[in-house]
Design a protein that fits this description.
Keywords: Signal. With about 600 residues, the chain is an alpha+beta fold. It folds into two domains: about 450 residues, no CATH class; about 110 residues, no CATH class. About 30% of the residues lie in helices and about 20% in strands. The strands form five sheets. Strands 15-17-13-1-14-19-20-22-23-24-25 form an eleven-stranded mixed β-sheet. α8 crosses α11 and α17 runs antiparallel to α18.
C-alpha cells in the first residue's frame, strides 16, 4: 500500500506541473492534444461548406419542417451558428454506478462510484480505480469466466435438452431443461436482467445455434454480459421479438457432452480497450498490454464522457445512476472528441464482435485518431457522425432536442449511444474539475445512498441535481453497471426532468443566483421523507416515482431547471460556471471559477 501512495504522490506532483488553470497534462498528453488541435482546426474549417450544403438539402429541410418549425426557414449559416453556440455550452457528462465493487469491474466500466469520489481527490478512470481499490488488480486484468454446458437434440429434431455444470464439467450439474427448437423462451440471464433465447439446430454441422434478445421488461441491469449460472430456472415460452437479435452468433456442439465456452476473457477485453485508447486517441502505451502496473501509467489514459447534445436530463444514463458534469473552463484545453463512442467502434468495427445496438452503423465512416476534434474545433465531427449513424445522426437529433419546449421531442432508445465521446485528459482534480452532479431520482432519492451523494456534493461545494431520467425500470433500483435496455427496442423518452437539491445548493456559491426561503428546504425534506417511507413500506414502481417527481416539482416550482441552450447566461459564463436555467428564465451559476492548487491536493 505504501508503494501505491508513493506512486500516487509522484503522479500528482508530475501532473500539477502542467496547466494551473485547467487539467494538468503529462508530456505525452500535451503532445497528443497539440496534434489533434492542429488537425481538428483544419478539418473543422474545411467541413463548413459541406455542412452548409447539407443544411440546404431537400431531405434535411423536409426533416426540419416536420420536427422543428422554429428553425425550419432559417438560412444554413444561422443553423450552423446555432449548432456552434449549443456546442459551446454543451455538458460533458460521465455516468457511473452509485456503488461499485472493484473486484467485479470489467473492460470499459466506469471508474467511479460515490464512495470512490468521497474518499478521493480526483475523478478516476477505470484503470486508476482498479489499481487504487482492488486488492488484486492482476486478477481483474486477467479474469476469465466460462460456462460448462451440454446440448442434446432428440431424434425427431424438434426439441433440445440443455444441462449446465458449476465449477467445470466435473462439478455439480443442474437439472436438464427441455425446450422446443426454433421457439423463443424467456429466462434469467444475470441478476436483474432476463433474456429471450431461441435455439435452432443445424443438421449439416450437428450444432445448435442460439439467438438472443433482451427481454422487453428487463431492468437492463447486469454485470456486463457475465452470465450468472445461479439464475438458471425453468424458462417461459414467449413470442419471438420482431426486431433483430442482440446476439446471434453462439454455436454449441450438440453431442450431449459437457463443453467449455468462454463467457468473459478480461485479458482480451482490457487489451481491446487498451488498443482503442492508443489507436483512436493516441495515448501512451502501457508496458504490458491491457494491464498497467502503476498509477503513473494509468494516469496517461482518459476519463470517458459524452457531449450531451441530446440534452438528456440524467446526463449519461447508460452507465449508472450518477453523472458528473465537468467544468467547461477546466477541460477546455485538454479534451479530445470522437465523433462516436469508441467502445462501439472498437467492438463493432475493429474486433467485429456483436454489440447490443439494434440500429445499423457504417464502420467505413471512421478512421482512428485522424478524425478527432476538440471543444473549440469540432464541425467535422457532425459529418463523420452523420455518415456513421445515417438518419440517427446527431445533425438530425440535435435540432429536435433544441426545439422548445425542452423534451418536446423524445430520445429514442437507439439514440442513447449516439453522442460525441469526450476523452478527458489529465488529472481531473476536485473540486475544480466538476461543475455539478446528477443523481437518478427513481433509484436514489430518499435513500441512504442518496444521502451519501448529497454529502459528497456538499463537501466539494457542487450543485446536486435530481433527474427523473428514462425511468425505464418497472421496479426502480440502482444500476450495477450498464443499462443495456436503453440501447435496444423502439421506446422514446422525454428525459426532460431536472430539479435542484436545495439542501445542497445552500452550501454552494450558486445559492446567491437562486435565493430560496426556508419553506423550500422544509418542503423538500418532507418529500424526501415521504419517498423514503414509501421505499420502506411498499414496492415502488416507476409510475410511483414519476408521480412523486411531479408532486415535488409542483410543490416547489422554484427547483426545476433545464440545461443551458446556446446564448444562455452569456454574461455569467465569461467568469463563472453555470448549472442551467430555471423554468422562470433565471441563470443558476456559481460566483466564480475555482482552481485547484498544489496545497489542496490530498494524495490517496
Amino acid at each position: 500500500m505504501a508503494r501505491g501512495i508513493l506512486v500516487g504522490l509522484a503522479l500528482s506532483l508530475q501532473l500539477l506541473a502542467g496547466n494551473a488553470s485547467g487539467a494538468p497534462l503529462t508530456e505525452w498528453q500535451k503532445q497528443a492534444f497539440s496534434e489533434v488541435e492542429k488537425s481538428a482546426a483544419e478539418q473543422s474549417k474545411a467541413a463548413e461548406p459541406e455542412l452548409l450544403a447539407f443544411f440546404d438539402s431537400k431531405d434535411f429541410r423536409a426533416n426540419l419542417s416536420s420536427c422543428c418549425p422554429s428553425v425550419a426557414k432559417l438560412p444554413a449559416a444561422e443553423l450552423l451558428d446555432r449548432l456552434s453556440k449549443q456546442f459551446q455550452v454543451a455538458e460533458l457528462a460521465s455516468g457511473f454506478p452509485a456503488d461499485q465493487d472493484p473486484t467485479k469491474m470489467f473492460p470499459d466500466s466506469a471508474g467511479m462510484s460515490i464512495g470512490f469520489g468521497m474518499n478521493g481527490t480526483f475523478f478516476l478512470n477505470d484503470w486508476q480505480a482498479i489499481l487504487l481499490h482492488s486488492t488484486d488488480p492482476a486478477e481483474v486484468w486477467h479474469g476469465f469466466e466460462a460456462t460448462y454446458v451440454a446440448f442434446r437434440v432428440n431424434s425427431s429434431g424438434k426439441t433440445v435438452t440443455v444441462e449446465w455444470w458449476f465449477g467445470g464439467c466435473s462439478g455439480n450439474k443442474t437439472q436438464p431443461i427441455e425446450m422446443l427448437l426454433s421457439t423463443c423462451y424467456k429466462q434469467p440471464y444475470t441478476a436483474g436482467m432476463s433474456m429471450i433465447v431461441r435455439y435452432d439446430y443445424d443438421n449439416a454441422s450437428g450444432n445448435v445455434n442460439s439467438t438472443m434478445w433482451m427481454a422487453e421488461n428487463s431492468s437492463g441491469v447486469s454485470g456486463g454480459w457475465k452470465r450468472s449460472l445461479a439464475t438458471n430456472s425453468e424458462p417461459t415460452k414467449v413470442d419471438c421479438p420482431p426486431q433483430e437479435a442482440v446476439f446471434n452468433t453462439e454455436v454449441y456442439v450438440a453431442d450431449g457432452h459437457c463443453h467449455t465456452y468462454t463467457m468473459q476473457n478480461n485479458s482480451e477485453q482490457f487489451g481491446a480497450q487498451d488498443h482503442a485508447e492508443t489507436f483512436v486517441y493516441g495515448m501512451k502505451p502501457f508496458q504490458v498490454r491491457g494491464a498497467p502496473s502503476t498509477l503513473m501509467e494509468a494516469g496517461e489514459r482518459p476519463v470517458y464522457s459524452m457531449v450531451n447534445l441530446n440534452l438528456i436530463d440524467m446526463g449519461s444514463p447508460i452507465y449508472g445512476d450518477v453523472s458528473a458534469v465537468f467544468a467547461q473552463k477546466y477541460i477546455l484545453n485538454s479534451t479530445l472528441l470522437s465523433p462516436t463512442d469508441t467502445g462501439l467502434y472498437e467492438m463493432g468495427c475493429l474486433d467485429k464482435t456483436v454489440v447490443p445496438v439494434e440500429v445499423a452503423y457504417n464502420c467505413s465512416a471512421l478512421t482512428g485518431f485522424r478524425q478527432l476534434g476538440t471543444l473549440q474545433h469540432n464541425k467535422h465531427l457532425w459529418l463523420v457522425n452523420k455518415n456513421f449513424w445515417g438518419r440517427l445522426g446527431l445533425l438530425y437529433k440535435a435540432f429536435e432536442r433544441m426545439e422548445a419546449p425542452w423534451g418536446h421531442h423524445g430520445v429514442v432508445t437507439g439514440s442513447f449511444l449516439n453522442y460525441f465521446e469526450g476523452g478527458l485528459l489529465g488529472q481531473l482534480q476536485y473540486p475544480a474539475a466538476i461543475r455539478f452532479l446528477i443523481g437518478a431520482f427513481p433509484a436514489l432519492f430518499g435513500t441512504d445512498m442518496g444521502v451519501k451523494l448529497q454529502n459528497w456534493a456538499r463537501s466539494r461545494g457542487w450543485v446536486l441535481i435530481w433527474a427523473l431520467g428514462p425511468n425505464d425500470k418497472v421496479v426502480p433500483k440502482p444500476t450495477s453497471d450498464f443499462n443495456f435496455a436503453l440501447m435496444e427496442g423502439h421506446a422514446s423518452f422525454a428525459v426532460n426532468k431536472r430539479m435542484i437539491d436545495p439542501l445542497v445548493l445552500s452550501e454552494t456559491t450558486a445559492a446567491a443566483s437562486l435565493p430560496l426561503g426556508s419553506d423550500v428546504t422544509d418542503n423538500f425534506k418532507q418529500m424526501w421523507a415521504e419517498v423514503s417511507s414509501l421505499r420502506n413500506t411498499t414496492n415502488l414502481t416507476n409510475v410511483t416515482m414519476a408521480q412523486k417527481w411531479k408532486d415535488t416539482a409542483t410543490l416547489l416550482p422554484q427547483l426545476p431547471v433545464r440545461p443551458l441552450m446556446g446564448g444562455d447566461c452569456e454574461v455569467q459564463l465569461v467568469n463563472a460556471e453555470c448549472v442551467g436555467m430555471t423554468m422562470q428564465g433565471s441563470c443558476v451559476c456559481y460566483a466564480s471559477t475555482e482552481v485547484v492548487s498544489l496545497e489542496e491536493v490530498v494524495v490517496v
